[in-house]
Amino acid sequence: MHQWAKELFPICRSLTGDGVRETLSYIQKFVPELEVHSVPSGSMVFDWQVPQEWKISEAYILAPDGTKIIDYKDHNLHVLNYSTAVNEIMPLKELQQHLYSLPEQPDAIPYVTSYYAPRWGFCLTQNQRDSLKSGNYKVVIDSEHFDGELNYGEYYLPGESDEEVLISTYICHPSMANNELSGPVVTMALIQQLQQWKGRKYSYRFVFVPETIGAIAFLSQRLKEIKHRIIAGYVLTCIGDERNHSYLQSRMENTLSDRAAMHMFDYFAPNYCLYDYLSRGSDERQYCAPGVDLPIGSIMRTRYGDYPEYHTSLDDLNLVTASGLSGGLESVYKAIQLIEANAYYCVTVLCEPQLGKRGLYPTLSSMSLDYTDVRTLTNFITYCDGKHDLIAIAEKIKVNALELLPTLNRLLKEGLLVKVEENNVEIE
Amino acid sequence: MHQWAKELFPICRSLTGDGVRETLSYIQKFVPELEVHSVPSGSMVFDWQVPQEWKISEAYILAPDGTKIIDYKDHNLHVLNYSTAVNEIMPLKELQQHLYSLPEQPDAIPYVTSYYAPRWGFCLTQNQRDSLKSGNYKVVIDSEHFDGELNYGEYYLPGESDEEVLISTYICHPSMANNELSGPVVTMALIQQLQQWKGRKYSYRFVFVPETIGAIAFLSQRLKEIKHRIIAGYVLTCIGDERNHSYLQSRMENTLSDRAAMHMFDYFAPNYCLYDYLSRGSDERQYCAPGVDLPIGSIMRTRYGDYPEYHTSLDDLNLVTASGLSGGLESVYKAIQLIEANAYYCVTVLCEPQLGKRGLYPTLSSMSLDYTDVRTLTNFITYCDGKHDLIAIAEKIKVNALELLPTLNRLLKEGLLVKVEENNVEIE
Amino acid sequence: MHQWAKELFPICRSLTGDGVRETLSYIQKFVPELEVHSVPSGSMVFDWQVPQEWKISEAYILAPDGTKIIDYKDHNLHVLNYSTAVNEIMPLKELQQHLYSLPEQPDAIPYVTSYYAPRWGFCLTQNQRDSLKSGNYKVVIDSEHFDGELNYGEYYLPGESDEEVLISTYICHPSMANNELSGPVVTMALIQQLQQWKGRKYSYRFVFVPETIGAIAFLSQRLKEIKHRIIAGYVLTCIGDERNHSYLQSRMENTLSDRAAMHMFDYFAPNYCLYDYLSRGSDERQYCAPGVDLPIGSIMRTRYGDYPEYHTSLDDLNLVTASGLSGGLESVYKAIQLIEANAYYCVTVLCEPQLGKRGLYPTLSSMSLDYTDVRTLTNFITYCDGKHDLIAIAEKIKVNALELLPTLNRLLKEGLLVKVEENNVEIE
């Protein structure tokens, strides 16, 4: 994953344009089935209009002495994303109106965008800015905005059931590692894992979209078709650093996505940060909007806005590590395992089953034995009443639901349990 | 308001009689539409019988040396309220059986009543009582009980809707300021404010009743007619001192009245005292009784029983101040504003609306901007799902609902929100 | 009760056999109506098979020097319960494989069973065991397993209603006092108390069963018949020591049994231990199993497993005392009183009733009076709305429901309250 991130890092992405398409092409090398969709500039998608494409060839500043002091080819954050063109000579004072830097992080180039109002500008470190001397600067941004299309990628991986899990990540930020590439590369690895999982119940839909407008465009095309099939899902973002794990709840707060992720993290990373929906900031804003109402939370390592490198050039491949990415992937995969396993089960006999004759209970009754495992087993069985689903039982009996899976499978095989629809239970 | 209270202070009110009528006449000077109703003595009102009228002309005690030591004309608390007549000479020892004072508040004349058992008596300060010397005292109470009527005032202020808010206050206590006059004068001022509010939705019913029996008489005459129209309301009492603000919940605990008052106080007076219904003590006892079931709480400054001057001559116009009264009025008015504004709203577009094109969102995306207001705005919109009413949204997003009103009106005007019936929502 | 326990103590009970029958016969002396049921060995009862009878005549160990060092006639815990027969001479080393003792309680003989796998063995104190010298030991257990029957006792005490309360206790442990005899003797005393209670509403079913298999056998014979008639009930076990009181909730957690016991203990023994169903360990495991779903909790003094003498010879009649037993009985009886009294009540008049004319309210209104009782009375009445049952009202108004009973009866007599079906209320 880290290698993929390295290769994707230099591409200058924006909401639209070549950067997005180049990124999608790269992903197709590993997920050939990925379909690339396009929506023409100017199309209305719900309340929004698809913006023009942005194409940038050059962006630099020449100092009064003619040296090139800022060049977007050094770092594509140097140019205000979606900047209009400019080719002028101007005094420093006037140039300052178009410069963006962070006084409190003097070594970081900030990430600034102006998607919905025409502006030109450069981003630079505060240190660079402070070293500028008065005089006339030549500023060149050779960019174009023109009618073209907005692109997003979609991959549908069918399962036994039509019900599906939606995984969404974004591909519109230029060279940033955690708040951009961690999402797509973890999603790519997840796709490979799920492709190999035999006996998966659910279908999976993976979307790689420009944030906000891309998610809105995707929903405007697919919502009617998929709305009632999506039973859970996550936005994956900022999922590659090593600092912590985080979960941001869906607007509905108690969906299967929320329950699975929160239960999983309680055991996988008990100190994880739990955010409510008021802390939202990525495409769950669209998926959970009123009337859309999809059960989508966000699985992250350190949440956007909660780490100092966020939206700067310091959000790079030192911050995002192989280990950070694989921890992120593992958390997503475990949440999905839980979603797959979660169901209502019901014991098939009245009263406690006789576990001894099945080799599941010690034959000697004595205070000196350790009954922990058998206790977990009987606790599990006693809440298999068709009214508690697997996660609810695990929370009730205070164990990790994923660790119940071998027991669950053994009991299903013994015929002591059956899967049921909720409350649709008739024992004996 | 303080002036009104001053003028009403000397009137000797009781459950029935001239004091009540004089008080209602005074109110009619400012609220000419106030109707005065009468219920004949002896009428059954639910489980109660309307008592006779009480008329008092004189009440005094002459000391053994002939000086008038107690005279109800000095302070109408001096006579046991609803006292029977007496005209006797008796030794101090016998007189003591008929005297009421407060050893722990030696300067206060207590307020004592005997409405439902015939008794005569005088109330005086402990200091006065301690100074009485043995000897024969002449005691005179020239009072009558006779069949007459019980009176209460009612004013109905129509609004756009037949649904109404009930405001109830009482007019049966003699010269006490917080635990009597604060309620009627705040109600009078509230009437004037609501009369001037254009575009009010609800109708308002104001009742000025003798406590308990008056509220019961009112309900026995009006309950059937108004029961299903009353959507909220408050008893106003003890609402004129400067010590604190208080709210006492209705029996049902989670009515619109309760939610509006509690949310309002959380911002208006965060240290306010919240009482549950077990602490009740005024006419909410009738309004919330089983089968009556009106959603009525009580808005107060310092609750009856919780201030040392309560039910004594010290509950006077030093305790109740202009500022205390206007703070009380303000709290009631704000609660009513919230009741008026509270409704279910639903966003009219799927996904987030594009706020930028409406000038509601900054066009530049940068970490350096302050997004607090825009965050409140998007938080507000995202819970406008037809399932949360305004108060619920405000609590969810942790802001003062009253401060959301300009935003709400702007969004309604932009067509981004519509008012809906709960859960009756179809977006796009 | 302590005397009964003394007489029952020496009987060598097991799951099946003479010990159980002898115990039931003893109980019949005091409860002649007790029916003794039998289920043949080998019968399937739900998922279980009724085991063979176990008959034991002799069990002892002769030391190498011929002295009898262990004899089950000294204490019937000395033999592994349900032990197979043996008659051998063997070296100490081999014998050790069949000895059970408790290193941490060197003076206690442990209670060990092997019901569902054939084994022979002896239990002894650690001190005894440590004193064994090497050499050849003669071990004799003269026991038989043969097809016979499993027995349990059942007594049905009819009431006004077909609805019934189930009381279950067990009779399969040999000489142990708290974790065996306290249950049956408290049940016997409870039967005598309930037989004398005139005007009881509910019927009562008392069962004396071998733990687990006996409860399962009973349910396999009776469940269909009684399932919808049982409205509450308790397992009585470990209910004779003086250390504490305990309640273990039913699986459904909020049944009438749970609410009555927990409310009762909040006043009767506020420091009682409350256990959730995860701490279960006796026949509530069967009664509360999914599909059985009976509302059965456990009333105890110190719970099994929570006292050091548990399942050893130290669980004797010093631990269980007359005072411990009668405290246990009292708690059960009070819980039952509450179950009997619990119902929905509704006030018959609108607004507050006039209590004064019924002598229930002071005629003088003064700050100096103590209104606690009248406050409890009015609080009680105001929640008699047909939506709160007696226990719910008591919890709402923070008083002991049992102390409300005289008030309740007085109000019923005054006609101010009527018993109603929940929510089926029409006042006036």
TrEMBL record, chains A, B, C:
Keyword Protease: yes
Keyword Phosphoprotein: no
Chain ranges of the DUF4910 domain: 2-342
Protein name: Aminopeptidase
SUPFAM superfamilies associated with the record: Zn-dependent exopeptidases
Pfam families associated with the record: DUF2172, DUF4910, HTH_47
Listed InterPro entries: DUF2172 (IPR032610), DUF4910 (IPR032589), UCP015244 (IPR012353), UCP01524_HTH (IPR032622), WH-like_DNA-bd_sf (IPR036388)
GO terms, molecular function: aminopeptidase activity
Residues annotated as domain DUF2172: 53-144
Keywords assigned by UniProt, alphabetized: Aminopeptidase, Hydrolase, Protease
UCP01524 winged helix-turn-helix domain residues: 344-418
